[in-house]
């Protein structure tokens, strides 16, 4: 079924549209709960963690919050379960489990 373009209710006037293929700001998953995409979930073991903080800067989604120089629980709303944090943790404080 074809959509008649003339019948679409456009709320942005043409003067407010940007040119195609141009970026005007960095993209961020903080605006969306992208953690729903996750098929594997990192599990944090506080007892094994030595607070080396190697995991926080390698997280591509910024899902490892650091407060007062210590990492806290994962931000599962944005974590996509890539496993980079588990691979970089030298103490085995992060393991991956299948599913959410």
Estimate the mean pLDDT confidence: 83
Q: What portion of the residues fall into strands of 2 or more residues?
A: 5-15%
Radius of gyration: 20 Å
User: Helix-strand pattern, N to C?
Assistant: EHEEHE
* DSSP, total strands: 4
CATH class of the domain at 40-100 equals Alpha Beta
- What would you say the CATH architecture of the domain at 40-100 is? 2-Layer Sandwich
Look up the CATH topology of the domain at 40-100: Alpha-Beta Plaits
Structural class: mainly beta
Strand order of the largest sheet: 1-4
Shape: elongated
| Number of distinct helices | 2
Distance between the termini: 37 Å
Helix percent band = under 10%
Low confidence ranges:
none
Please name the defining characteristics of this protein.
single chain; 100 residues; mainly beta; Alpha-Beta Plaits; two-stranded antiparallel sheet
Polypeptide structure, described:
The chain has 100 residues and is mainly beta. It has a domain at 40-100: Alpha-Beta Plaits. The chain is built from two helices and four strands; from the N terminus they run E-H-E-E-H-E. It has helices at 55-58, 84-88, and strands spanning 40-44, 66-67, 70-71, 94-98. Strand 2 and strand 3 form a beta hairpin. The longest helix is centred in the last third of the chain and has 5 residues, at 84-88. The radius of gyration is 20 Å and the shape is elongated. The two termini are 37 Å apart. The mean pLDDT is 83.
């Amino acid at each position: 079924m074809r959509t008649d373009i003339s019948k679409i209710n456009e709320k942005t006037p043409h003067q407010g549209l940007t040119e195609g293929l141009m970026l005007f700001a960095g993209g961020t998953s903080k605006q969306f709960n992208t953690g729903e995409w996750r098929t594997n979930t990192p599990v944090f073991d506080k007892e094994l963690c030595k607070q080396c903080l190697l995991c926080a800067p390698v997280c591509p989604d910024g899902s490892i919050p650091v407060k007062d120089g210590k990492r806290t629980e994962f931000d599962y709303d944005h974590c996509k379960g890539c496993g980079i944090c588990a691979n970089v943790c030298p103490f085995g404080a992060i393991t991956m489990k299948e599913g959410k």
